[in-house]
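> example.struct
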């Protein structure tokens, strides 16, 4: 080994030892580095000298994710612990200014993420196929129970009642539209840009006998027409894909669709650091959510108010999302063989890396989840003083 190579190896050893005492490392030459025997929660195995050199030269969450997806490194043990160390070593980088021209078309972005076999999502989602933050109302709740609690929380916040016309924007596999119709007697329309999701939802509605009260269409929310057509609107997990520059148009369209006095619930991921983000955002937009953008909850609220809405309530559920993604990750890892058979090793690695990184980010508060409830003002209707009371006193 030359002097330069020896020096590079020693630099690598120094850097790896400085990252986290909870990690152990196995270098390409077989050496194992650990702060104390048996203390490591995860072991990072470097498959080649180039993979080690690349991470040493430019350590970042994005570089770690790329190497993991490519199979250049393996993680034995707790993947979340490994990514916690990667996050700690990561530096915030300036966020690129939103540019509509740089965003992929919405339908392409949706197909990239959602048009995987439904059987793949069924490996880690709950029985109703809810792919948004669950609500762990009580300790020890199962994923199925927590997702049903979230569906019901959304319905209670919207004050759904029999005969209400509900629009479910970005309805996914139709769980909320079905729950609202079955439990609250609403007439619901769900729209999604994913044709496989829409087809799956329609089969589910037929099987459950709800097809007369609920329609799910493969359509863009901007194609939904009819001024003051709906009594309530739910937009759960949609705003992440809208694009920050499009927020004004997005909320203006929802305002037009809602009747005076009607309620809208916007449920989406937010980012507390304006203008800066982890390098992991580059990994996310390249491999997982093309075109995804997050903003401060204050920015979301301001755009809603500018569209004409009166904001009634803002609630953070980021801790619930951390528990949700951790549960999804464990369920997917437990079914690794089936997942690889359905989508291949590279896609499987991408998804476990994404879910582990999301768990770390939500736990640390680098990203959050906010539900914002607002109304289209109606001067003739009195304002309620007990907005929150019915949400948390109901049994269930």
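> example.seq
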């Amino acid at each position: 080994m030359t002097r330069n190579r020896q020096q590079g190896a020693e630099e690598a050893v120094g850097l790896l030892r400085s990252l986290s005492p909870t990690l152990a490392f196995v270098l390409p030459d077989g050496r194992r580095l650990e702060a104390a025997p048996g203390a490591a929660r995860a072991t990072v195995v470097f498959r080649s000298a180039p993979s080690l050199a690349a991470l040493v030269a430019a350590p970042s969450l994005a570089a770690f994710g790329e190497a993991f997806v490519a199979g250049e490194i393996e993680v034995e043990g707790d993947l979340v612990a490994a990514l916690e160390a990667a996050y700690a070593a990561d530096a915030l980088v300036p966020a690129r200014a939103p540019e509509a021209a740089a965003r992929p078309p919405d339908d392409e972005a949706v197909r990239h993420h959602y048009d995987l076999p439904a059987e793949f999502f069924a490996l880690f989602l709950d029985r109703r196929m809810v792919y948004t933050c669950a609500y762990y109302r009580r300790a020890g709740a199962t994923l199925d129970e927590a997702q049903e609690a979230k569906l019901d929380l959304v319905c209670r916040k919207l004050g759904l009642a029999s005969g209400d016309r509900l629009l479910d924007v970005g309805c996914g596999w139709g769980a909320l539209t079905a729950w609202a119709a079955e439990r609250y007697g609403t007439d619901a329309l769900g729209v999604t840009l994913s044709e496989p999701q829409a087809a799956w939802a329609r089969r589910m509605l037929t099987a459950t006998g709800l097809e007369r009260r609920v329609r799910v269409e493969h359509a863009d929310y901007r194609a939904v027409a009819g001024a003051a057509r709906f009594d309530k609107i739910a937009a759960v997990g949609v705003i992440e894909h809208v694009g920050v520059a499009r927020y004004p148009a997005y909320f203006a369209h929802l305002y037009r669709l809602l009747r005076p006095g009607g309620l809208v619930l916007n449920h989406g991921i937010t980012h507390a650091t304006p203008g800066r983000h982890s390098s992991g955002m580059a990994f996310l937009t390249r491999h997982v959510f093309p075109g995804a953008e997050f903003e401060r909850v204050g920015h979301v609220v301001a755009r809603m108010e500018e569209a004409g809405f009166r904001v009634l309530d803002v609630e953070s559920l980021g801790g619930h999302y951390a528990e949700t993604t951790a549960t999804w990750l464990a369920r997917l890892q437990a079914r690794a063989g089936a997942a690889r058979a359905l989508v291949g090793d590279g896609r499987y690695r991408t998804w476990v890396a994404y879910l582990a990184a999301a768990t770390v980010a939500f736990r640390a508060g680098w990203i959050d989840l906010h539900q914002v409830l607002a109304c289209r003002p109606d001067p003739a209707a009195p304002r309620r003083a007990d907005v929150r009371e019915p949400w948390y006193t109901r049994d269930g």
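> remarks
Confidence is low (pLDDT under 50) at residues 1-8, 92-101.
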